[in-house]
Automatic annotation (TrEMBL):
One of the record's GO molecular function terms: lyase activity
Location relative to the cell: Cytoplasm
Protein name stated in the entry: Imidazole glycerol phosphate synthase subunit HisH
Every Glutamine amidotransferase domain range: 18-215
GO BP terms: L-histidine biosynthetic process
Species of origin: Micromonospora matsumotoense
A single Gene Ontology CC term: cytoplasm
Subunit relationships: Heterodimer of HisH and HisF.
Known catalytic reactions: L-glutamine + H2O = L-glutamate + NH4(+); 5-[(5-phospho-1-deoxy-D-ribulos-1-ylimino)methylamino]-1-(5-phospho-beta-D-ribosyl)imidazole-4-carboxamide + L-glutamine = D-erythro-1-(imidazol-4-yl)glycerol 3-phosphate + 5-amino-1-(5-phospho-beta-D-ribosyl)imidazole-4-carboxamide + L-glutamate + H(+)
Amino acid sequence: MGAHDAGTAGRGRGKRIVVLDYGSGNLRSAERALAHAGADVTVTADLTAAAGADGLVVPGVGAYAACMAGIEASGAGPVIAERVATGRPVLGICVGMQVLFAHGDEHGVVTKGLGLLPGGVTRLPAERLPHMGWNTVTPPAGSVLFAGLPADSRFYFVHSYGVLDRAALAEAGVRVTTAHHGTDFVAAVERGPLSAAQFHPEKSAETGALLLRNWLATVD
């Protein structure tokens, strides 16, 4: 472990992180990655634990509608919203990022999301789907998640849907990181206590580990 690794891992030490289990997501890989970054991690469906944790991770894989159904069945939506409203850190991953938006449109079926971010999720206009594999990203000035990461850092994506409209996000004061597959799409967002990534940091080797450490550094 180098000096940078030791310092960033130390910033996460002892911080109580809950990975929310609502029936969808790479729970164990997220748990392992966060623990490696130095956090005290619990995977649980317990909403009291989710509300009280220092940081909350909302994972998600598969269909938007199925993830939203799981969140609604578990009653987790108000807990996520309350954390954001009161300035307590939340990190969404993959479909766990997508459900933070107002809606998702899959196969012509529109599903209401959590509405914590403006805009919707639609199918990527690309010849080859899913977008699967490693891709570079373009973070904005002042990004916390990508601070200190090399400009050519690559992250692991696997998705066919994403957020394309960045104008509403910019108007809402959201820092937007983009990537390109067929078109530019939203690869990550940052606004106050709310952060999210379309890619999988827990599957993105050392660059993903550095991003998780950056996020943990924002967790009080």
